[in-house]
Amino acid sequence: MECSGPAVSQRSDQDRPAVWILACPPVPEGIVWAILCGLEEEGIPAQLRNVPEGPAEALAKQAADGSPLAVGIGVSGMEKVVALRLRELPSGRPLFELAAETCGIEELRRVGANAARLVKGDPLAHLE
What we know:
- The chain has one domain (about 15-120): Rossmann fold.
- It contains three helices and six strands; from the N terminus they run ββαβαβββα.
- The protein has helices at about 30-40, 55-65, 105-120; strands spanning about 10, 20-25, 45-50, 70-75, 80-85, 95-100.
- The longest helix has 16 residues, at about 105-120.
- The chain is α/β, with parallel strands linked by helices.
- The chain starts with 7 loop residues before the first strand and ends in an 8-residue tail after the last helix.
């Protein structure tokens, strides 16, 4: 499925149901784009927030804690790591953590799709 251009909000509306993505620079645009495409393909909205710094796992926890949908993604440009987590998971225990520079676009899309599937209660797609 082609991603025509993910609809993403960067507003600060705390209550809008969306998977939050917290990203700290320098994040290559293609990484976030692929994650957003995966969310869009599954029909779940995203809210992208740029933050000054932080490790991917901590960003994912902060995103999950803030998201009304209890699912968050952290992207650390410094670490080049992407993390996905649920609010109820203990700190330091993301559901997935991937080296962004070594995984492909399809794998990053599956991170977004899996975030959406967690929200919907659907089975997760396999990450390679």
